[in-house]
Structures
1.
Amino acid sequence: MENSHISALSAKHAGLDARIKAESSRPMPDAILVASLKKQKLRLKEEMAAQH
């Protein structure tokens, strides 16, 4: 159960990373969106660290 939860968090983390890269590569990236995605990514990383 716990391992699958960490796997799900890791998948979400990777998805957010991909969205950040995609948004950042646009000609006029939305800085507010990028900042929001980075905060979400950090929260997931902290939650994964707490699970270990």
2.
Amino acid sequence: MTSAFSGMTRVDPVVFKAACPDCRAHFELSANALRLAIGATPKTTFYSFTCPECGAAVRKPAGERIVELLTGGGVRTLRLHSTV
């Protein structure tokens, strides 16, 4: 009997390097620790996380490359819709 998973290799979890603008700590975060919001414009597209060192809520702009990296790494994404 052959397993459906035979031949598959173990995949390490994706981690993202980040820094806190408040306490200036540098750390790595898992995809579950980040949130990505994609808006209609670059000004409304950002990612956020809570600093594991000081507990500050951090929100940073996300350009196209950051959006690509975060979505490819499994970060939960919220698409913001216009009400117009």
